Structures are given as C-alpha cells and as structure tokens.
Amino acid sequence: MGDSRRGERQPSRWLRNGVLLAVVVLAIVLGFSWNGLREQALVSTAYGARVACACRFVSERELKTCKGDIAVAGLGRTAGLVMLSEDTEAHAVKASVPLLASQTATFAPDRGCQLEPWAN
C-alpha cells in the first residue's frame, strides 16, 4: 500500500510564492496610490452627482441615461467606477465610488442642483 496522496498533484511551491509576491506588490502599489485615487474619486463623485442631478431633475431624463454625460468629462480612471442612485422624493442624486468616496446633489426649483458640503 502506497501513499494515496502520491497521485494527487500538489500546488507548486513556486506558483504559491509567485501569487503571494503578486499580492504583496499589489498591496504596496495600492497603499502608495490610495490618496491619489481617493482625491480623484472625490472629484469624480462631486462632478457626477451634480451632472446627474441636472440631467435627472432639470432635463427630466432617466438616471441610467445620465451616466454617459459623466463618461465624456475626462475625469480619469475613477470616472468609470462612478455609480449613481436617486431619491425621487428628496430630488437628490448620489454618486459613489465604492470604498473611496460619495457625494449627493439635491435639486430645488429656486436654486437648481447643489452639492452637499464635503466633510473634512
């Protein structure tokens, strides 16, 4: 009776170490670029909320069609990550980039769409 595990293929030590190294390098790169990504996400969500609010409540278009207005703005790498949601009763649109930033713009007939103040 031989070892029954002998026929099973074990993951290569090189493969395991390579994956571990890739995860560590990714974590280091993300750590160094986190502040830049967060700042870019703040700008993208503020712009996205304001533009989507005007698109939805001034132009009276469907919210899903407003995403294209944000995409053409040239906001960089976070623009494609902006997610939009609306509160129809409050006449508000929230733009968010998961884990990085979110911003809400509210429509009032006498003032148009205004962003909520940024928290420091």
- Biggest sheet features: 4 strands, antiparallel
| N- to C-terminal distance | 69 Å
Instruction: Give helix and strand order, one letter per element, not per position.
Output: HHEEEE
Query: What topology, given as strand order, has the largest sheet?
Result: 1-2-3-4
What does this entry look like structurally?
By secondary structure, the protein is of the alpha+beta class. It has one domain. 46% of the residues lie in helices and 19% in strands. Strands 1-2-3-4 form a four-stranded antiparallel β-sheet. A hairpin with a 3-residue loop joins strand 3 (101-108) and strand 4. It is elongated.
Task: Pick out its properties.
120 residues, alpha+beta, 4-stranded antiparallel β-sheet, 2 helices, 4 strands, 19% strand
Topology, pairings included?
Blueprint: H1 13-58, H2 63-71, E1 83-87, E2 92-97, E3 101-108, E4 112-115
Antiparallel strand pairs: 1-2, 2-3, 3-4
Helix pairs in contact: 1-2
Task: Summarize it.
This protein has 2 helices and 4 strands.
